[in-house]
Write a sequence for this structure.
C-alpha cells in the first residue's frame, strides 16, 4: 500500500507483569480466562476454561435457562481457571467482563459475578465488547498484522477492518447471523446440539453430495440469510426429502439431510467469502482473520484459504479453544484497554444487548 | 461487399461477408427459394440449400453496421456454444435482431418479404470460401451498394415501433433532434441485440 | 460443429489488453469487430471494454456457473433499463453469459475521480479499478483545473451533471449499489456522443422503488466523496441540488430518509 508509515503503537510495554481475569457469558457458553502481559511485550494464556449449556436436539437455548446455567457454573469455571493458572484473585489486576452485545439475562448473570468479585477483592472492572474480544484474541493468537476480520457466530456476522482506532464494520448481515441460520436448521433436522449444532452440520455436510439451488443474497458488502433459511427448511417438506436416507426403491432424485447441510454450507460460506473478498479488494489487504464460533468450521476455512491464495494472501484461523466464545478473549481485550487507562466504574457496569463493534474507541492501537 | 475476419472465432465461423443490395427486384423469388430449399430432399435439396445459405435481412430495419455486426456476432457465439435457438447460424441472426422470442415473427419482420427492396445479405463461413459476392449475386437481383448507404435506408419509425421505444423517457428527451434521436435509438437497439441471450 | 479447445470469448481475452482486476472481475480492452472502413462512424471506434467475471475456485462449480450467469444478466439488464430511461450509461456490445463476459462500449474519457484529483487516499480507499489504465498517459502533477479545462467544464458543472444522472436513474427505479467517483466518467467532448457524465459499473445494481434504497445509494456516494476528495466536500452540495431539481416532488421524502441514514450510518444495531 502506498505511503504506509509505520505508526508507533500508543501501548507501551508494561513495567511489570499484568494479569487479567476475563468472564464471558453472552450466549450459551460461560467462560473464564486468565491472561498475562509481560514486560518483554509477550502475552501468555494462563488458563481458559469454559462450560457450554447444551439443549436437547430440536431445541434452542432460552435466555432464562441460559442465565440459570451460567449462575450454576460460574464459580466452578472461575475456580478452575484460577487453579490452572496457579494464581489467586489477589494477583489479578483487573476483572474483565462482557458488557455486550448478547442475550440480556445471561450477560447480566455474569456481570453480577464480576461486580461481586470486584467488590470482594477490590479490583477494577473493565467492561468489554464481545466482538472486540474475538478480534483481539484472534490477532494475538495468529499474529495477523492488519487483516480483514470475518466475525461469524451464532449472534453476529460482520466484516471488519481496522482504521484509525476503530474497528469499522464494512459489511454485515441484514437479518440473521450465519451461526443462527445454521443452528436453526440443525433444529429442523433434529441434529444433536452436542458439542454444538454447527459442528454436527459440518460433519453431515461432508457426507452430502447434491448441491440444491438456494437463494444467494449478497447486497454489495452485506448479506441476507433469512431467505436462504426459509428455502432450506422448505426442502424438508419436499416430496424427494428422505430424512433417513434413500430407500431401496428410490432412484437418484432424492434429497438427504446431508445434501441439505452440504448445500447450505456451500452457499452460505460462498456468500461470506465473497463479502470478505470485496472488503479485501476495497482496502487492499491480503490478510483475513476468521473469528467467532462459525470460524471453527474447516470448510469455511478451506474456502477462505482458496480465495485468499488466489489473491496472493493468507487466512488466519484458530481452533475451537479461541474461536468459540471464551473468557480469555475478554481478558485480552480488557487488559489492553485497562493498560491504556480504561476502567468501568461500578455504576456504569451495566450490560447492553446492543453494542456495536465500531462504538469502541480502540485506544491501544495506532 | 465487405469481409470481416475474426481470428478468435472457430475457423468455420470466423469470416463474415456482408453486402447491401438496393433496388432489389426479385424478393418474392428469393423468399420462395428459401421455402422450397427447406422442403426439398436429396442432393438437389442440398444444392439448393447451399445456394441460399445466407441471411437475408431487410436493410430498412438495420440502424448501423455496428447493429448488424452485434447480431451476427451473437449468432456466431450461439452456434459455437451449441445454443442456437433457430436452425442455422444465419436464421439465428434474424432471431437476434428481433426484440421478442418469437422465431416466426423474427423471420417475418427482419427477413426478406415480397415487398423488400433493400437487402443486407450475410454469409458466415471459413476463410476459404471464395467468390462469395458472386454467389450472392446469383440469388439477389439488385444493385450492390456500399454499406455507408445504410444511413439513408433505415426506417427509424418501424425500428422504434418494433422496439417499443416511443414511450421511453430516453426518446422523449431527444424528440426534437432527429440526429440525436437516431444515435439514441441505435444505441438502445444495438445493446438490446447484444443482451438478447440473457433478457428474461 | 467443430469443437474448439478454448472458447471463442476466452480466446478473445487472451489477445486483449488486461487493464485491471477487481474482486469480482478482470477488465480488458479489446477490439471486437474489425474496422470495416474509415468513413463509418461506429460511435466508439472498434474498442470495447470486456468485463470478465472469472471462475472463483472457492465456490462449488454449479453455484459458480449459475451465479456468474445471473450476474452478467443482471448487469446487462440494468444497463438496458438505464438506456431506455435516458440515463447516460455505456452501451452493450457483446454478451457471453456462459463464460461470464460482458462486452461494453469503450468510453473515451476519464473518471470523475481522476478529474477531481484523487485527493487523500486514506487506508480505506485504495481501489484497484479501471481508472488506472483509462488514464493512458501518466499525468502526474496536473492540477484539477487543467484536467477539467480540456473537457470545457468546471467542477461545479460536473456536480450538476452527476446529480441529474442520479435523479434520472432513481426515477427509473434503478439503484446503482456502488456509487463512487471511480464509477462515473466524463465522456470527452470530441467523442461522437459529445461531453456526457456517464455512470458505469452496474454489477451491484438492482431494481427498487424503495426510498430507503435510493437514499442509501446517495449516502454511499456522499461518503465516497468525503473520503476520496476531502478538499472537495463542498462540491457535493451541488450534486444534491441538481438531484433535487430533477427529482421534483419526490425529493422531500428522499431527503428526509437521507438525513435518517446519515444519522445511523446505514448500519443497524446489533443483537448479541
Amino acid at each position: 500500500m502506498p505511503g504506509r508509515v509505520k505508526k508507533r503503537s500508543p501501548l507501551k510495554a508494561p513495567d511489570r507483569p499484568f494479569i487479567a481475569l476475563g468472564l464471558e457469558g453472552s450466549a450459551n457458553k460461560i467462560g473464564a480466562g486468565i491472561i498475562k502481559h509481560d514486560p518483554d511485550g509477550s502475552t501468555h494464556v494462563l488458563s481458559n476454561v469454559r462450560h457450554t449449556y447444551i439443549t436437547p436436539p430440536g431445541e434452542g437455548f432460552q435466555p432464562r435457562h441460559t442465565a440459570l446455567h451460567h449462575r450454576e457454573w460460574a464459580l466452578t469455571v472461575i475456580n478452575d481457571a484460577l487453579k490452572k493458572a496457579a494464581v489467586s484473585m489477589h494477583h489479578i489486576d483487573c476483572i474483565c467482563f462482557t458488557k455486550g452485545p448478547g442475550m440480556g439475562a445471561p450477560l447480566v448473570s455474569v456481570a453480577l459475578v464480576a461486580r461481586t468479585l470486584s467488590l470482594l477483592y477490590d479490583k477494577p472492572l473493565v467492561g468489554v465488547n464481545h466482538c472486540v474480544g474475538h478480534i483481539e484474541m484472534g490477532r494475538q493468537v495468529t499474529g495477523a498484522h492488519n487483516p480483514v476480520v470475518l466475525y461469524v457466530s451464532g449472534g453476529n456476522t460482520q466484516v471488519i477492518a481496522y482504521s484509525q482506532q476503530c474497528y469499522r464494520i464494512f459489511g454485515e448481515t441484514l437479518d440473521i447471523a450465519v451461526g443462527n441460520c445454521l443452528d436453526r436448521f440443525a433444529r429442523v433436522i433434529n441434529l444433536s446440539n452436542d458439542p454444538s449444532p454447527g459442528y454436527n452440520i459440518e460433519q453431515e455436510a461432508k457426507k452430502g453430495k447434491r448441491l440444491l439451488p438456494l437463494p444467494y443474497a449478497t447486497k454489495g458488502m452485506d448479506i441476507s440469510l433469512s431467505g436462504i433459511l426459509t428455502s432450506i427448511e422448505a426442502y424438508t417438506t419436499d416430496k424427494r426429502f428422505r430424512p433417513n436416507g434413500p430407500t431401496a426403491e428410490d432412484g437418484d432424485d432424492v434429497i438427504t439431510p446431508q445434501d441439505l447441510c452440504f448445500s447450505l454450507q456451500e452457499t452460505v460460506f460462498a456468500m461470506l467469502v465473497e463479502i470478505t473478498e470485496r472488503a479485501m479488494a476495497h482496502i487492499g489487504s491480503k490478510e483475513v482473520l476468521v473469528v467467532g464460533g462459525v470460524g471453527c468450521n474447516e470448510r469455511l476455512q478451506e474456502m477462505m484459504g482458496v480465495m485468499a491464495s488466489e489473491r496472493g494472501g493468507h487466512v488466519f484461523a484458530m481452533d475451537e479453544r479461541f474461536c468459540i466464545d471464551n473468557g480469555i478473549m475478554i481478558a485480552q481485550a480488557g487488559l489492553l484497554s485497562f493498560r491504556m487507562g480504561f476502567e468501568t466504574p461500578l455504576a456504569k457496569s451495566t450490560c447492553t444487548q446492543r453494542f456495536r463493534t465500531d462504538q469502541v474507541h480502540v485506544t491501544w492501537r495506532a | 461487399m465487405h469481409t470481416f475476419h475474426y481470428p478468435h472465432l472457430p475457423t468455420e465461423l470466423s469470416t463474415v461477408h456482408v453486402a447491401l443490395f438496393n433496388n432489389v427486384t426479385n424478393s418474392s423469388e428469393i423468399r420462395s427459394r428459401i421455402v422450397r430449399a427447406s422442403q426439398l430432399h436429396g442432393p438437389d435439396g442440398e444444392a439448393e440449400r447451399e445456394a441460399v445459405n445466407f441471411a437475408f435481412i431487410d436493410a430498412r430495419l438495420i440502424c448501423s453496421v455496428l447493429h448488424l455486426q452485434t447480431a451476427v456476432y451473437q449468432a456466431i457465439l450461439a452456434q459455437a456454444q451449441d445454443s442456437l435457438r433457430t436452425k442455422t447460424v444465419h436464421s439465428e441472426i434474424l432471431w437476434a435482431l428481433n426484440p421478442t422470442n418469437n422465431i416466426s415473427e423474427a423471420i417475418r419482420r427482419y427477413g426478406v418479404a415480397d415487398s423488400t427492396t433493400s437487402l443486407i445479405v450475410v454469409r458466415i463461413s471459413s476463410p476459404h470460401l471464395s467468390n462469395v459476392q458472386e454467389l450472392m449475386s446469383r440469388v439477389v437481383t439488385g444493385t450492390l451498394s456500399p454499406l455507408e448507404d445504410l444511413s439513408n435506408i433505415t426506417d427509424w419509425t418501424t425500428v422504434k415501433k418494433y422496439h417499443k421505444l416511443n414511450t421511453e423517457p430516453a426518446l422523449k428527451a431527444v424528440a426534437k433532434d432527429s440526429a440525436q434521436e437516431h444515435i439514441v435509438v441505435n444505441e438502445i437497439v444495438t445493446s438490446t441485440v447484444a443482451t438478447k441471450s440473457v433478457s428474461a | 460443429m467443430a469443437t474448439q479447445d478454448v472458447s471463442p470469448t476466452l480466446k478473445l481475452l487472451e489477445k486483449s489488453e488486461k487493464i485491471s482486476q477487481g474482486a469480482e472481475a478482470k477488465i480488458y480492452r479489446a477490439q471486437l469487430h474489425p474496422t470495416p472502413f474509415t468513413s463509418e462512424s461506429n460511435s466508439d471506434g472498434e474498442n470495447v471494454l470486456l468485463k470478465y467475471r472469472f471462475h472463483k475456485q472457492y465456490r462449488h462449480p454449479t453455484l459458480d456457473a449459475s451465479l456468474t450467469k445471473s450476474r452478467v444478466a443482471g448487469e446487462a439488464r440494468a444497463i438496458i433499463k438505464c438506456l431506455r430511461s435516458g440515463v447516460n450509461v455505456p452501451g452493450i456490445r457483446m454478451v457471453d453469459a456462459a463464460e461470464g463476459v460482458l462486452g461494453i462500449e469503450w468510453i473515451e474519457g476519464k473518471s470523475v475521480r481522476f478529474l477531481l484529483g484523487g485527493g487523500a487516499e486514506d487506508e480505506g480507499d485504495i481501489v484497484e479499478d479501471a481508472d488506472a489504465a483509462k488514464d493512458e498517459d501518466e499525468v502526474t502533477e496536473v492540477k484539477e483545473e487543467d484536467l477539467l479545462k480540456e473537457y470545457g467544464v468546471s467542477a461545479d458543472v460536473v456536480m450538476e451533471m452527476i446529480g441529474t444522472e442520479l435523479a434520472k436513474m432513481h426515477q427509473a427505479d434503478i439503484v446503482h449499489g456502488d456509487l463512487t467517483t471511480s464509477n462515473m466518467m466524463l465522456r470527452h467532448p470530441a467523442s461522437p456522443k459529445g461531453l456526457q457524465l456517464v455512470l458505469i459499473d452496474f454489477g451491484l445494481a438492482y431494481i427498487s422503488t424503495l426510498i430507503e434504497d435510493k437514499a442509501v445509494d446517495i449516502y454511499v456516494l456522499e461518503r465516497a466523496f468525503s473520503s476520496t476528495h476531502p478538499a472537495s466536500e463542498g462540491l457535493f452540495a451541488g450534486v444534491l441540488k441538481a438531484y433535487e431539481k430533477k427529482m421534483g416532488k419526490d425529493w422531500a421524502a428522499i431527503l428526509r430518509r437521507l438525513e435518517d441514514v446519515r444519522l445511523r450510518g446505514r448500519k443497524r444495531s446489533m443483537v448479541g
